[in-house]
Structure formats: structure tokens, C-alpha cells
## 1
Amino acid sequence: MSALSNSRFLKMNGLGNEITVLDLRGTSLLVSAEEARAIAADPRSRFDQLMVLHDPVTPGTDAFMRIYNTDGSESGACGNGTRCVAWAMVADPVMSRLVGNGLVLETKAGLLPVERVSDTVFTVDMGPPRLAWNEIPLRDPYPDTRAIAVETRLAEAPELQRPSAVSMGNPHAIFWVKDAQAYDLRAIGPKLEHDPVFPERANISLAQVVDPGHVVLRVWERGAGLTRACGSAACATLVAGVRKGLTDRRATLSLPGGDLLIEWRETDDHVLMTGPTELEHEGAFSPALFKGAA
Ligand SMILES: N[C@@H](CCC[C@H](N)C(=O)O)C(=O)O
């Protein structure tokens, strides 16, 4: 039987990005890829990302988060999930142990300070973007990652060839398009995600600039597929937009699930993301869920 059997979880969402939160602080348990896939397969705990809380590692932080995609792979960043974790840590009667509305979370990609703006709205400091080819990472030494070249040739969208590339702790490719709705992202997303230029795969965004303060965005997420929102993609898109002279440093990013306010702060290079969270229900993992999972 899995040690996760009967563990309590929260099913949440950040702008429709499906998030499951599991608190393993105070234990030495780790979630395996098989267990993550089993949790994702159950409709009650289904997620785009599973956010697992562990005891803090760096002094002064409140928790360490491991982030799993639906396919069991791990990510260094999840903006929408980080807001959901912050809500759980300040407002959930079982998980909250903090006094006040500010906290610092940590992932394998770095520290994420979070502030509560109102009951369910949070601002996450997503840190500085990483723009060098080897930090994203890309296979080839591009001197300028504002426009790279993918190898994939799409019969249905031959114009999608020169995305911007940015890491927000996870790799993003942003394709600038006239109409973000004009593409079958479910069909083309997996091909671009696995393009050989991305050695760790990439989250694939279609970005349509409405005006410098407003971008419409659709995202095919690495390891999770088509989602209603992706916070780190919104941050990466704003950064790429500023670098290409397409957007202001502060803009609204409209995703299928709703709007995020993103700012790339000039003073310290950090990207700030503000958006909502929603608790859907809580539950406990049935032991039957993990049959066959290591
Ligand atoms: N939905 C997330 C990003 C999730 C991580 C991604 N699929 C990856 O593997 O990098 C967000 O809100 O940032």
C-alpha cells in the first residue's frame, strides 16, 4: 500500500489551471512519478500540476515545493500553483501555520516570495527571467534568444518557426501570432514541445499582442497538455514581449481561464504575477488509487 493512501489533499485551481495541493511537511515521504500519475488519473484529484509541500530547506523560507505534471515529470516553476499553495498556507484550517499574509516558498529553481492581495488573490515574485541559451535550456548556443529557430515543420502552420525562448525556472517558447485562436494547439503543441532544439522539452505559447498593455495567450504545457492558464508562461511572454519591443513592462495577459497581471520590474529584474485562486474541494487519496504504483 502507498504511504500516500488516505493523505488529505486540496483540489484547487488558479484561473482554471487545475492544481492539487498535498502537504507532506513533517514527513520524509516523496511522491514518485507513478504515484503522481495515479493521482492525476482520479477525477477527484485530477491536476495539471500537483504541488507537494515539504519542510523548508533554506533558512527563512516557509516550505519547499516539488511540482509534478500530469505525466509524472517535475517542473521548477508553476505560477498558478504557487498562488494556490500560498492560499492553503495562509487560509486552509489544516495547512495554515503562518501568521500574516506574506510567505516565501522554494522550488528547485529558486525562492518565490508571495503576498496576499485580498482573500483569494496573491502576487508571486517569480524572480528574474533566465535568458541565456544554456539556462533555458536550448540545444544550440544562440547569442540572442529573442528569436530562435525550431526544426519542426508544421504542415498546418508553417509560419510557426521563430519563437522567443525564456526560462522562468522552466522552459518556455513563445510564438508571436496575429490570432491565437486560429491554431489547433492540441495538435501542434506536442510536436513543438518535443522539438529537438529543447533538450528538456518546452511549454509552448501562442501570443497575440492586442496592444502593449494586453496580450492574449494560449498555452500547451510541457507534461500536462492544453491548460486553461499557465502563470509562468504569462511571465515568460511578458518578458519576451518587452525584449522584442512589443509590450510594456506591465501588462494584462488574457488566458482562456481569465486574466493575470504581470510586471517585469526594472529595479531588480524580477517578474511579478498577480492572480486569483479557488478552492474546489478537499479529499483523501483512496488506497485503491495507488494499485500498481511504486
Ligand atoms: N501551469 C504552470 C506551469 C507548469 C509547469 C510546466 N508544465 C512545466 O513542466 O514546466 C504555471 O502556472 O506556471
## 2
Amino acid sequence: MNNRIPVLEIFGPTIQGEGMVIGRKTMFVRTAGCDYSCTWCDSAFTWDGSTKEEIRQMETEEVLAELKQIGGEYFDHVTISGGNPALFTSVNELIDLLHHHHIEVALETQGSRWQDWFLKVDDLTISPKPPSSGMETDWSVLHNIINRLKENNISLKVVIFSRGDLAYAEKVHQRFPGIPFYLQVGNDDIIEKNPDQLALYLLEKYHWLIDQVVASKTLNQVHVLPQLHALVWGNKRGV
Ligand SMILES: C[S@@+](CC[C@H](N)C(=O)[O-])C[C@H]1O[C@@H](n2cnc3c(N)ncnc32)[C@H](O)[C@@H]1O
Ligand SMILES: Nc1nc2[nH]cc(C(=O)O)c2c(=O)[nH]1
Ligand code: SF4
Ligand SMILES: [Mg+2]
């Protein structure tokens, strides 16, 4: 059981819609379960019990086989997201297997838990949660994680829904000045079915976020991005 990973989705190839490698062609592996419960989580199905019967406890070889079955020869990069993949030591084996097959590995996690296998991740995004999420940041855990990853290709990404979130982002950037920093538009309409409607709405939010960052002396060495996949496909799952 220990060397298995609880998987909810394997999909792609698509593009990484967020953060440090935005636009990169990639496959996704989405694990089940999270130690957080952000109010606005766009992947709440990974932890709210609504897709419990879809969770598969998979061997790493099975994960690779399914990636190859779906993605064929059309990928060389896999993004592991969730939920929080950092809940599982077994992800270590998956990374080794993917690397053995010359496939690069990216990770999305919130910085609440450490795993030794973080050191092997090629593109590691840490996304601490602002006040609007309803979650509390454990700063000592976050500092510990980032200190241990000083030599690695990592970034910080904070999702913004409010002015309070912006103040939080400023604080994170000031605490970790050398770490590439991304601000991301928060999507607070995760039930809209019409992608065009959502894109218009999110572009307005992007405009607002750019204006806020332009007006901040603290946020100079930063990147401001939308969720590209939300602009292209809306709230669709598995893209
Ligand atoms: C679903 S989470 C999974 C990985 C990990 N639990 C985390 O939060 O970093 C992947 C990314 O989506 C972001 N995200 C979640 N809900 C969002 C929303 N409604 N709008 C914008 N970004 C969102 C998270 O902040 C995180 O950066
Ligand atoms: N295309 C695409 N890019 C993404 N970047 C982060 C995602 C995630 O849910 O973790 C995500 C996702 O679900 N799809
Ligand atoms: S930490 Fe990530 S997966 Fe967990 S609830 Fe928050 S946004 Fe969702
Ligand atoms: Mg997502």
C-alpha cells in the first residue's frame, strides 16, 4: 500500500496554465487528498469527498503506463498536482521512474509539508495561501522548506482575490526576496459554464491585479499572470 499513490486524474498533453513554466507542454497527474480546505479551491473535488469513488491507488509503473497510453510520444514533462502531492512519500518513486524515462517533473504544492523528494523536482511551485483562503500559513514550515530548496529551481506563487491577499503577497515576497515570485489571478467563479463569459470576467480581474502590482513599491521583481487554462477552457476539468 505504501508504494502506491492515490490518483484522481491523469490527463494531457495540455499546457501548464500557471506560474514559472506557464505555456510548457505537459501531462498532469492529480493526487487525491489535501491537508488544507481553501474556500475558493478550484480542485475541491480532490478532498471534499465528491469524487471518492474515482480515487485509484496506483503503482508508479501503472501511472507511467497510463501517461504513455494517453500521451503517447507527445510529452516529455509531467506536472504532479492535487490536492497536496506532498502528503505522499510514494511520489519519490514516480519521480525516479519519470526521470529514468527522460521525462521532466514539475510539482504544485502549498508549502505546508516537506518531502525529501522535493529535491529531485525540476520545476517546483510553492503556493502559500493568502487570508481569503481561510488557511493559516505556518511560517516556520515554509521557511524550512524554502531554505532546503535554495539550490533548486523553485518559485513562489500567491493567488490574489482581495487587497488583503495583496498585502499577504507583499509579506511573502519580502520574507523570500531571492525566490522568483508570481502573483496569480484568483478565480472566484468556479461554477461558470461558459468559457467566453469566464474569460471576460477573469481578464477584468487580471487588469485589476496588474494595476495593483504596478502601484506597489514592494512588488517590483515579480510576475503577474492569469490562469491561462481558465482563459482558454474555462472551468473545465482535465485540461
Ligand atoms: C489546486 S492547487 C493543488 C496544489 C496545491 N494544493 C496548492 O494549492 O498549491 C494548484 C494551484 O491552483 C491554485 N488555485 C486553486 N484554486 C484557485 C482559484 N479559484 N483561482 C486561482 N487559482 C487557484 C492554487 O493556489 C495552486 O497554486
Ligand atoms: N492546464 C492546467 N494548468 C494547471 N496548472 C496548475 C494546475 C493545477 O490544477 O494544479 C493546472 C491545471 O489543472 N491545468
Ligand atoms: S491547498 Fe491547494 S488543493 Fe488544497 S484546498 Fe488549497 S488550493 Fe485546494
Ligand atoms: Mg487547477
